[in-house]
Amino acid sequence: MLNCEASFLEKRKMEEKYICPECGAEMKETYNKPSLLLDCPKCGCKIATTKWDPIDLDQTIYELFVEKIESPTLDNLRFISSMTGDNYIKTKQDLIEGNISFKYCAVDMKEKMKEFDNNNIKYHIAPEFHY
Ligand SMILES: [Zn+2]
Predict the structure, then answer these.
(1) Which of 1, 10, 40, 124 has the largest CB neighbor count within 10 A?
(2) Is residue 105 part of a domain?
(3) DSSP state of 125
């Protein structure tokens, strides 16, 4: 499930400095996510590569803790149980006790936060999530 590490080293290599391999001049960047086009103003050399934001390089595993819900609605149960795979009875119990958390890497966390927000589920995240 957690694929954060997969291409980390590969990404890291490309993180900074765009120097023309032909003449050593600094290349001009045109960033059109996720593609980065490099143009050498001196010799006209062109390179297409890929650039990543800090969040893409963040390998931290974050944990999202669902806040207690005293009276979970059917929508709450449906949403949470679709994520845990547990039945509604267990999900309801866990929600009442505040026993539910999920682990994601940064990129996935940002996506999941939208889902939780859309479902009006309150949560907090540890460690602190900056994105
Ligand atoms: Zn050049």
Answers:
(1) 40
(2) yes
(3) E
Cα of 46 vs centre of ligand 1, distance in Å, is: 8
What are the backbone angles phi and psi of residue 66, rounded to the nearest 5°?
-80, 130
Q: 72 and 115 share a domain?
A: yes
State the burial class of residue 69 (Cβ atoms within 10 Å of its Cβ: 0-12, 13-18, 19+). buried
Band the pLDDT of 56: cuts 50, 70, 90.
confident
Q: Is residue 92 part of a domain?
A: yes
The CA 53 to ligand 1 mean position distance, Å, reads: 26
For residue 14, the CA-to-ligand 1 centroid distance in Å is 18
User: Cα separation of 107 and 102, whole Å?
Assistant: 14
The whole model's pTM is what?
Answer: 0.64
